[in-house]
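Retro notes - structure team

What went well: the batch runner handled both jobs without manual restarts.
What didn't: labels got mixed up in the shared folder, which is why I'm recording both outputs here explicitly, each with its sequence directly above its tokens.

Job 1
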Amino acid sequence: MSYIEKLLEGVEVEWKSIGEVAEIYGGLTGKSKPDFGNGKAKYIPYKNIFGNIDVNFNYLEIVNISLGEKQNAIKYGDVLFTGSSEIAEEAGMSSSVTTNLKEEIYLNSFSFGLRFNSDIEMIPEFSKYLFRSRFMRKEIARTASGVTRYNISKARFKKLQIPIPPLSVQKEIVRILDTFTELTAELTAELTARKQQYSYYREELLSFEEGEVEWKTLGEVGEIKRGVAFTKKQAVMGKFPVVANAAEPISFHNESNRNGEFIVVARSGANAGLISYWNEELFLTDAFSIHPNASILNTKFAFFYLKNHQRKIHLMKRGSGVPHVRASDFEIYKIPIPPLEEQERIVSILDKFDTLTTSISEGLPKEIELRKKQYEYYRDLLLTFPKQ
């Protein structure tokens, strides 16, 4: 707080209600279904506002607006809000207009806009952070009411108190928070590039021609074991994860029926055929496990190969009701068998990419998550102003 106190030294932060400092306007009105997707006018869809703290003008949709028709066009500096959501905590999500517009752009029918009075100094780069801060989100959520869907009450919304610090303070806060968001954006771009690189090398390293290597069925080079039935009554606070039709445990149990290194194939449900790798003691239920012969087939190599063919494996699902895959189909599933040294080399390369692109404990996803938390911490710290 010492930094905030220093930043605010000798200056005053005004607190005013939204109704005092801004006007609220609505989105498109009088439109029917045929109007959307036709015409030449552009509008900002609900999802654009919900998913971005400032409007993404590369993601607009079109609507038919007749010549002379009265509709509210957005302006630079406006703050746009979603009007409702299925849960109160997600109602009234904000997105600021931080771009000077060269054409008229409209707002979707399920959102509303806030436009500050001409005598109020609030830069949009500051408002985009302010209205997404933890304390403002909490206050905005309180203005929503409903049962199956929560709608923002404009009357209550107008009574919300917002801080209006001097422009110099706004700009300094924006400078600091922009640094965090730019770093996160750079890391996200890096992650995308590494995922593409991972996909390329995985395809290259796991593609074999007939005659290049020996091919054998999984039943020839390993053992396939079916899981054991498990009921909710058996779920206890045990130490062994219960694994079924997902890549994460569904429960815990005080007994185990698998240990060591193996591959799990989800047997039924929406994830039927999902491949996952495990190297621990657990209880396997609605799935079956593949245990390669270590003298012939490296378990991690087999996992990477099967995971690379995940889409084809999902097509092996059967059944018109609850889809399922059969262990017998995997017993005859053919897999390449290069020399063990080559399998280990491939695993070493792909393991590094897998850790970098998917690990939440040491890869880029962890770094991105840490930066997001750091950004949220400083955002809330920098936007906590004293009230008189």
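Job 2
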Amino acid sequence: MTVEVAASVVRTCLGDGEQTFAALLRGESGIGELRVGDGAKLNVTRGYHVRDGHEDEPFRPSRWLTACIREALAAAGVDPARSRVAVVVGTGLRELRAVETGAPPAERLHFGAAVREAAPLEAVTLSNACSAGGHALALAQDLVEAGEADAAVAAAADGMTESMLAMIGRVTDAPTEHVRPFDADRTGTLLGESAAAVVVVPEGSHLAPLARVLGTGLTCDAYHETAADAGGIRRAIGDGFARAGRAPEEVDVVVAHGTGTAINDALESTLIRETFGDGGPLVTGVKGAVGHTSGVAALVNLDVAIRCLRRRVVPPIVGLRRPLEEGAGVRFVVGEPVAAPVRLAQVNAFGFGGVNAVNLLEAA
């Protein structure tokens, strides 16, 4: 059984979903000067900020999340007063910035209040690192398929925190200027701010679905605190194909995790080659344009994948100029968009602690 995507809404440093995709097609980046913390002390001077005019106020991710959920429910035509609607929110950092700045209360660290501001609904918040949005989507699909909800919202939100910035600043000698996924000269990742909401409904219940979610492969291998494990990701990919009832040769485009880091990009490239062989699907990624959006990454990738399927065009990887050695034979989209009759997309999201999600979706 599959579910249909009735609406997908995102906010990134480049704007809404349409603005973000248009910028990707033009090869533009939303990088700017860091607006959180002391860049010299953090060894991080750049970031991908949502420009909302409230940079000094607490609970900004909650504000973005409320707007995204409200807009997604309206776009999907789902009325919580008339339907059973479940909400699952994924996040990597929650409202940790509010703790760092001393803003109470503690119960707002999670996103229940933000969801209730959008609609009279209760929510479950998952803190599943950088694949949190993919896990939220998998659970949303389960709730709809099991008949526990008439519609489900998979949502996510993350802003920047000084603690996370300090961590990425410790693993590089000099501050990274911009994210360059899969590039031989990449120097590390940078954070991006974002929120997203995706509404899924039973198959055949929506007049104009955006796409169909076939299945999600999930693993949690706990191999290492931060380093990814090939075995765990390999199992997530295999689980995704098994649940979707599809084979690797059917995939037309992969929206990769592509963090711009030394280990992860090499490992993901190797696994893409292993899964598909040479001459496999087109491969794109978004973090060069919007930064690493933590727990929202999977849903940002999903929104881009949906637009690829609907527009039949795949944007280039912003920041990629010279592909890394491990990517030889991988069909990275470089420089210009590629028009192609894409029908099936794979969305990768890999998180700290080996928390991985691989979503497979097809054109409606």
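One thing worth noting from job 2: Residues 60-76 form the longest helix (17 residues).
We'll revisit the folder naming next retro.
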